[in-house]
Amino acid sequence: MIVNGSQVVPHDSLASSPDIQPGADTSTSPSREGNAPRGSLSTPAVRHLVKQYGLNIDDIQGTGKDGRVLKEDVLNYAARKGLLQEPPSASEENVGQVELEGGKPLLDPQFYEDKRIRLRGYQRAMVKSMTLAAKVPHFHYLEEINCDALVQLKASFQKENKDHDVKHTFLPFLIKSLSVALSKYPLLNSSFIDETNEVILKGFHNIGVAMATEQGLVVPTIKKVQSLSILEVSNNSFLP
């Protein structure tokens, strides 16, 4: 009802209206469902992507829940602006000042070309043997054991050692122990012949030990460990 140019709300309408607290903000706020302000919700990773493209996140309409701006939203917006390319990384911002060995800049196309390196010597043999070994089924076994007796045994070897150039470590003991285990369970040291459906139980225990060197990973092999003593394994030139 209008009285003297002012709107008068009927008593029944006031009774059905929700309570309004004094000082409360009665301005209309946008709904979270479909009407959220652009860029109001986003993850730090998305904001970082927006910054890399030099965009304003408030200009991007989010398609995620509650209007959240997703990575796809940023990429689609950048594509519409003709900016869709790999965003510059932190190291590329000063690419004019960054040079690699030989004076080639970081973005030199030749820097990303494939290169072929011919393997020779032990590296060639190692790759060949490891490629063959990859065909063998692998498994992992883990068990905790008390090695107090092993510590005492190693100490006695070092004490009785007449050759002071030989330093006894735990590795030869572990290698020899593995050989003893293979003798007890020969199926672990076997190979399968598909053509004849036969299993060959290997008589020799040729054990390889992976080592990190200045030239990269090498896997020297100690042959016929089953016939070597712990001292002979320790004297092997391959071991550190």
Automatic annotation (TrEMBL):
Q: Which cofactor does it need?
A: (R)-lipoate
Q: Where are the transmembrane segments?
A: none
Asked whether the UniProt record includes ATP-binding among its keywords, one would answer no
Residue ranges of every copy of the Peripheral subunit-binding (PSBD) domain listed in the record: 41-78
Q: Which Gene3D superfamilies match?
A: Chloramphenicol acetyltransferase-like domain, E3-binding domain
Instruction: Name the InterPro entries on file.
Output: 2-oxoacid_DH_actylTfrase (IPR001078), 2-oxoacid_DH_E2_comp (IPR050743), CAT-like_dom_sf (IPR023213), E3-bd_dom_sf (IPR036625), PSBD (IPR004167)
Q: Which PANTHER family match?
A: DIHYDROLIPOAMIDE ACETYLTRANSFERASE COMPONENT OF PYRUVATE DEHYDROGENASE COMPLEX, LIPOAMIDE ACYLTRANSFERASE COMPONENT OF BRANCHED-CHAIN ALPHA-KETO ACID DEHYDROGENASE COMPLEX, MITOCHONDRIAL
Q: What is this protein called?
A: Peripheral subunit-binding (PSBD) domain-containing protein
Its ancestry begins with: Eukaryota, Viridiplantae, Streptophyta, Embryophyta, Tracheophyta
